[in-house]
Amino acid sequence: MKAVFCEIAGKKYPLVYSAGAISRMTSLFGGYENIQKYMTNIDGMIEHICEVAAAMIDQGCKYMNLTGEEKPENAAVDEDGKWVPLTVQEIEVFATDVGELARAIGEAFAQPSAVQVKTKESKNA
Fold it and tell me: Which of 43, 83, 100, 111 shows a CA-CA span of 20 to 30 A to 13?
């Protein structure tokens, strides 16, 4: 798993597409199969993007706090270095580039399907 970062109000937030994010989104949208429908429906699209971003940022902050991965410049951390997620309302107020937020969400959705394979050269080759 890898976090994807988005910038909101000058701070970088991690987005992670995890089981926790999926669970939150399915309860928001009434099932996994409805996520794409809501995300592409122009009516309420910005609201839905903010809701999905909040779920993925929450999971991203938990992931980064648990793994201790390196923090980028302008990371959204508190004085103890812990990642601090945003609420839906904070995202609605502070996010000014919804297109960039949607792009980051799409990139985070793609992360679980990206498989990295490390191989060793065979001695017999």
Answer: 43
Can you tell me the distance from the alpha carbon of 112 to that of 34, in angstroms, rounded to the nearest whole number?
Answer: 19
Encoded tokens for 109: 């959705």
Q: How far apart are CA 80 and CA 67, in angstroms?
A: 15
With a CB cutoff of 8 Å and minimum separation 6, the contacts of 106 are none
CA dist 36 and 48 (Å) reads 10
Q: How far apart are CA 39 and CA 116, in angstroms?
A: 28
Give bridge partners of residue 15 from the DSSP assignment: 4
Find, among 51, 50, 53, 54, the residue nearest to 29 by Cα: 51
78-101 tens-digit pLDDT:
999 999 999 999 999 999 998 899
